[in-house]
Write a structure and sequence with these properties.
The structure is a homodimer of 206-residue chains. With 206 residues, chain A is of the alpha/beta class. Chain A contains nine helices and ten strands. In chain A, the strands form two sheets. Chain A has a seven-stranded mixed beta sheet, with helices on both faces. In chain A, strands 1-3-2 form a three-stranded antiparallel beta sheet. In chain A, a hairpin with a 2-residue loop joins β6 and β7. In chain A, α1 crosses α2 and α1 runs antiparallel to α4. At the A-B interface, α1, α5, α6, β9 and β10 of A face α1, α5, α6, β9 and β10 of B. Chain A binds a DNA duplex (22 and 22 nucleotides) through α3 and β2.
DNA sequence: CGTTGTGAAATGATTCACAGCT
DNA sequence: AGCTGTGAATCATTTCACAACG
């Protein structure tokens, strides 16, 4: 009875749309409207939500506040997720200043880099620490997520180090497949792969 | 008989692994080895490749060079894909200096920004142009892809402008769903969503 | 009425099993 | 013997159809 992966991806999308409606003062919404907003069928929305409990009200729709709370619970976004960033090149800097993170429960609370030239510098209010401090700071600050923004050849080593620090999940921006024990979640973002998907779409669809 | 979406995603992964083997001088490989390298079943690899022709040699395996060429053709990566970047904040700068792009057929050949303070500056060898130049330069340089790295509220407007310039695909980093005509491909990368996937994994798996 | 929740049917993707080639 | 290509079977996901509810 565990949740289909595609459902989880859509839950994030529902959540964002709902938060926007909520900010606009809307209090009630139908599965049809949710579906239209993100481009899936109304039935799909109902099936997805039905997996995790009964949030809706027949004849009325969904109470937005209630539903937001429910989805946040499912996604685990109701707890804080302090994160450690490893690698403060251009991408790392972009992540440190990415405004959306602060709007959510995710927060990069510490940054690390192997390059002595940047260690000690302050970027978007956070000091860059040496790799030797990784274990100490992650433990001290109860950090649960690691974000890898280093070049590919160093990524596996960083992943190993993060796993030894007992992080629960790793967001990986390096274009390689990381091997880690199953208890650690991995989500990868790979720009080149995204571009290849796009090239495929663009070359078959015209 | 059109290709399953998941197949296309895996093709990118196969391609990268094959390129690494090729660089190491390996010339022949089995579906089993490919599958092991990226974490899928050998049968899956064969099914995927079988969709697009017959690349393998029974009893032997796949000739790496041949297979790389075949996959590149399928993905449309054998042609050049000049791209225009819109938005040169931290993320845009990271993309301009992302080394992997230059190793592939993708290349950001022009950068644009609405902020007069950065227009005219040079970042990683490319001059930042004003938005008013978008149409002229995209047409002049036969640019086929647009990359959106602007804040969410501006993203739809930028997408509309890119579509008017007749780009074939858009890589979107803004956390909203872009509405465009079907003939334009869209691939979105959304960091907050990725983190939510991770939070879900991390909160159910331990 | 309009809208949810959900079995049942349809579609889509993966895995199995094996014939056939080298 | 080793390995590919593929039809058939299994498994997963989406869509349909509709009963139940406010």
């Amino acid at each position: 009875m565990s949740a289909p992966r595609p459902t989880i991806k859509r839950l994030s999308l529902y959540l964002r749309a709902l938060e926007e409606w909520s900010a606009d003062g809307v209090t009630t919404i139908s599965s049809q409207q949710i579906g239209d907003a993100i481009g899936v069928a109304a039935t799909q929305v109902r099936k997805d939500l039905g997996q995790f409990g009964t949030f809706g009200h027949a004849g009325i729709g969904y109470a937005i506040g209630e539903l937001i709370e429910g989805i946040r619970d499912v996604l685990g976004v109701n707890q804080r997720w302090p994160a450690a960033l490893v690698g403060v090149g251009n991408l790392g800097r972009a992540l440190l200043s990415y405004p959306k993170f602060s709007a959510t429960k995710f927060e990069i609370v510490a940054a690390f880099d192997a390059d002595p030239a940047v260690v000690g510098s302050v970027i978007s209010n956070r000091t860059v620490h040496a790799m030797s401090q990784l274990k100490r700071i992650i433990t001290r600050r109860s950090i649960k997520l690691g974000i890898i923004a280093v070049p590919a050849p160093e990524a596996q080593g960083v992943a190993n180090a993060l796993v030894r620090c007992r992080v629960k999940g790793i967001l990986n921006f390096a274009p390689i497949r990381l091997g880690v024990e199953d208890s650690v979640g991995i989500v990868s973002v790979d720009f080149s792969r995204s571009l290849e998907q796009l090239a495929y779409q663009a070359s078959v669809e015209p």
